[in-house]
Amino acid sequence: MGADGGKTVTGVQRPGAPDLDNASAFLAAAGLRLTHVAADRVEGVIDLGPAHHTPWGVVHGGVYTAAAESAASVGATAAVADRGQIAVGTNNNTDFLRSMTTGTVAVTAVPVQQGRTQQLWEVRITDQSGRVVARGTVRLQTIQPRQ
User: Fold this and answer.
1) C-alpha to C-alpha distance for 54 and 56, rounded to whole angstroms
2) Helix (H, G, I), strand (E, B) or coil at 98
3) Which domain CATH number covers 38?
4) In what helix (H) or strand (E) does residue 28 lie, and over which residues does it extend?
5) Domain-located, residue 50
6) In which domain, by residue range, is 66 found?
7) 14 within domain boundaries
């Protein structure tokens, strides 16, 4: 468990935190493994390989876009979980800066702004040398979960 009580991959879910153990098949295929979740920071990794490739042999940008939205959504939801709310993406702008074929990337998401009804998160995806592979911003709306 993180020092701030956030959930890690091997940790225990804190009360009000999003359930990370029941990801959809889409998210499982994207391969994002969260290593730290808190209302002010989300971290994770993706082991990239041929399953993530375009027909041209490089990692599909959708992998990075999905990772950005996933990390931001989990962090934003952690920020409002104590109010019984969730956060859903309303805009995702992800820039692809460096192509890759294989390797491990780190995903780090931090809030830029956390308001009562909307949040803006910045996400950086870096390779093992610390170079930025993709970066994005995700705007999220705070809502009541559907029953």
Assistant:
1) 5
2) coil
3) 3.10.129.10
4) helix 25-30
5) yes
6) 25-104+116-143
7) no
What is the C-alpha to C-alpha distance for residues 48 and 30, in angstroms, rounded to an integer? 9
Residue 85, number of CB atoms within 10 A of its CB:
16
pLDDT along the chain (147 residues), means of 10: 40 51 78 93 96 96 96 96 95 98 98 97 98 98 91
Q: Nearest 5°: phi and psi at 48?
A: -85, 145
Termini Cα distance of the chain: 30
Backbone angles phi, psi at 25, to 5 degrees: -60, -35
In angstroms, the CA 92 to CA 95 distance is 10
- Exposed, middle or buried, 6 (CB in 10 Å: 0-12/13-18/19+)? buried
CA gap 109, 59 in Å, rounded = 20
Number of domains composing the chain: 1
- Is residue 85 one of the residues assigned to a domain? yes
Residue 4 has a pLDDT of 41
pTM: 0.86
Residue 109 lies in a domain: no
